[in-house]
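pls ignore typos typing on phone
inosinic acid + seq
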Amino acid sequence: MTPKKSILITSEQIKKRVEELGEEISNMFRQEKISDVIVLWLAEGAIFFAADLIRHIECENLQIRSLKASSYGKELFSQGDPKITGDESGFEGKHVLLVDDIFDTGRTAEAICQRLLRIGAQSISTCFLLNKKVEKTTSITPDFIGFDIEDAYVFGYGLDAAEAMRNLPDIWKFEK
Ligand code: IMP
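k done
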């Protein structure tokens, strides 16, 4: 039986919130006098969020980098420790803004932050479009969050359901 689905967050709501997040992040950089930043977005899920958000961030010298992180694979449940792949060079001494689609258990963010600290990043701030209400397995507290959502499987606007449906403009959820 196909699970029932419904729209959770519309593209208009996303657009408005992403603009606000851009402003909040720009203010933080201004306040902390940070003018040199690497925005590190995680493929594939953050593809649209990062592309939209970055264009609302004001920062004199902003570089864009990405790493690939996967914990769900083709399943709709976490497959344990996240796999992280990609070029990890060049983060030494840099201010990094980590941008991802969803803060679920927090394992992915924790793994990336640990690596960045090991590499010698000067500072790390984090921004997630969604924060899922589940028990977190990490001590990491996100700096910026777009929307707090219930514990449901969501897809669209870059998020996948078994690698499909990333192209939907709205964010959908499967009914439980
Ligand atoms: P975490 O490591 O448990 O925080 O999970 C983070 C990653 O799992 C996210 O970057 C997503 O790729 C994926 N993920 C978690 N929840 C969902 C969901 O509801 N839909 C699609 N992907 C999800």
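The mean pLDDT is 93. The pocket of inosinic acid is lined by residues 42, 45, 71-72, 78, 82, 100-108, 132, 153-155, 159-160 (CB under 6 Å). more later
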